Amino acid sequence: MKRTLIPSALAFFALSAGAQAAPVKLNFWEQSPPDTAAEIDKWIAVFQKANPDIQVVRQHYENEELRTKFLRSSVTGDGADIVFGPNDIAGVFATAGVIQPVDGMVDEKLFAPKTLDMVRLEGKTWGVPLNEGNHLILYYNKDLVKNAPADTKDLIAQAKAFTNEKQNKYGLAFFQSEPFWFASFFHGFGGHALKVNGKDVKVTIDTPEMQKALQFLVDLKDKEKILPKECNYDCAKSMFLGGNALFHINGDWELSTYTEKLGNKLGIAPLPVITETGKPMAPMLGGLFLYVNASTKDKKLAATKKFLQYLTSKQVQQRVASKLNKIPATIEARGDASVKTNAVLNASAQAAANAYPMPPQVEMRAAWDGMRIMVQRALSGKETVAQAVKTGQKAADEALKGIQAEPAKKSENASSAKAG
To answer: How many CA atoms lie within 13 A of 229 on its CB side?
Structure first.
């Protein structure tokens, strides 16, 4: 009898010891470009070496796929413990109830309030920032431009002197029809896309400020003639790199590429002040944030907190700046000598200083839809500016109805899935 019991007991204790020794597994989903993903893998390796009881498994998805897959996984229960993505998905995830607030998971004093505002809804913080940015910058070639324009009057004057339509040279090139670029203009005229009063959120497109901003954009193309007749993202980028555009508005995500192509010739400046209003053109300010699954708890939640604290450590935050060319999220890292002496990042940070935090409210999706239609119709001449603003408001209101109906639909789908 003893001969059979002792091996069984040993096997039981061996299994118990093995179970206790098994690391806590954290599923980490991201939508990053390859260079960022490779850098994240290095951070994970260092973290796991210091924390052998925790295993972080990274999985890449494309932007829209990550969002929809994570929303769907809230029903099936097989989603990520941590999702790494832009701030504008905070409202979608929080409204759907698939993430939990991160208040208390890391020290909020590490970050500037402006950074956390991008993921704050109804008094709760829904994401931990890794970096700040995704804002628009004024780029120029120092061989062609002596001084960056301080205001739009100066920009137009320099741009007109350079423009030669026959040679396909224009003073300014950017993604004209995309509302993310237009946002900089309407902020400069004092407009905002959303009016937020607690839970009451309205899209505000049909306003005098929006109409003035749209008229200014149309005038740059039709009156001042410093913009190409039609130019999408790739067109504007190639014109600038080819020397056919004097000034170029694009995001901080192109800093590495433009620095590689132009080297010391690359000029970086904040967007200019709107001469008419005296207010700076203010791009949207975004960033990349870490979101925690609503169902993550107990040992997994403890491991998640430890990983989040590691990603906001000075060690990692310095690498965000040096390896990814991104403005680090923490105040401590921004004050470090290695970051302060980085001329490219400093210029980017100056451009971000005037930026307006991207609203996390899910209603912003309706605002983008409305403004896209508005800008396209006005620039194409299909509608006057006054008509286009009203068309944009109508389109946004229609989109808003669909967005507001989504929570109820998701609730019904979740109930059906659980019942099945």
So the answer is: 5
User: What is the C-alpha separation between 217 and 404, in angstroms, rounded?
Assistant: 31
**pLDDT at position 2, please?**
45
Put simply, whether the predicted model's pTM sits higher than 0.90 gets the answer no
Contacts for 395-398: CB closer than 8 Å, 24+ residues apart: 395/369, 395/370, 396/203, 396/205, 396/366, 396/367, 396/369, 396/370, 396/371, 397/203, 397/366, 397/370
Listed in order, the ranges of the chain carrying CATH 3.40.190.10 are 21-132+286-357, 136-284+360-404
Q: Which CATH number fits domain 21-132+286-357: 3.40.50.150, 3.40.50.10610, 3.40.190.10, 3.30.460.10?
A: 3.40.190.10
Per DSSP (E only), the strands in 78-205 are 82-86, 99-100, 120-121, 124-125, 128-133, 136-141, 170-173, 194-197, 200-203
Structure tokens that stand for 23 in this block: 């690391």
Q: What is the mean pLDDT of each run of 10 residues along the chain (420 residues)?
A: 48 49 92 93 98 97 92 83 94 93 95 92 94 96 95 98 97 97 97 89 95 98 96 97 97 92 96 98 96 95 98 96 92 92 90 92 94 97 98 96 65 41
Q: DSSP letter for 266, please.
A: E
Q: How far apart are the C-alpha atoms of 259 and 265, rounded to whole Å?
A: 8
